[in-house]
Amino acid sequence: KEKDQLPHQSNASGARSSTKQPFFIGVAGGTASGKTTVCNMIITQLHDHRIILINQDSFYHSLDAKMLQKVNEYNFDHPDAFNMELMLSCVEKLKGGLTVNIPNYDFKSHKNTEHARQVYPADVIILEGILILHDSRVRDLLNMKIFVDEDSDVRLARRIRRDTIERGRSIQNVLDQYTKSVKPSFEEFVLPTKKYADIIIPRGGDNDVAIDLIVQHIRMKLGQHNLCKIYPNIFVIHSTFQI
Ligand code: ADP
Ligand code: C5P
To answer: Which of 75, 117, 171, 180 has a 20 to 30 A CA-CA distance from 31?
Structure first.
């Protein structure tokens, strides 16, 4: 799911020498809507920039033995299922040019694994997850907000295939969870965040035009930033002209 980053110059506290702020993109949408697919397409097209992908899934609370006994009653689609404070602190550190450790989550055991991922700051940071647009503090950090839109029946069909093959679930288990918590929480918490999106992508990864437009916009923003560093006055004059 993630594209590994090469280490780069950083001092003892993990801060990097550049003052450049990363371009933050948030990608939300229902389960199996194609969020990861869209992110990977953006990453592939922006291969000449340093990009990191951070999944909200990495910040799921681990379930203890008591909770695991009642795992079928647990709502993994509720905002409280995530450690948002930890996610915010990681994102803020990356914004400040610091290296962070992102937890690794295992969907089969419902726990964090021991191996955290060390992530270095980058030109572009993509945050992806069902509820990435839910918390206003996260929204405020984003330069671009995307919502991937796909029919519920298509998403359910994909989820059955994925969860039985990759996440160790039975078809009955996927259907029960979908009816009990995934669908109601999508309607209550995920769908209402669509209104915060700058861009809504129908048909996810099949929508090449939308992905091309997004990539063009990011390239333009990254280019503008570099020009701004070389010729700072150009952009002052330009903004005066706009007013
Ligand atoms: P999300 O990150 O929103 O959960 P993914 O991008 O991981 O969604 O896609 C979920 C599943 O659906 C994966 O198995 C993926 O291969 C499949 N999938 C995603 N987009 C498409 C598509 N356009 N056509 C067919 N299958 C797709
Ligand atoms: O990749 P996707 O966006 O589908 O991941 C989010 C989904 O993972 C949620 O809809 C949630 O129901 C599911 N999930 C799960 N078991 C966990 C953690 C999350 O089924 N342990």
So the answer is: 117
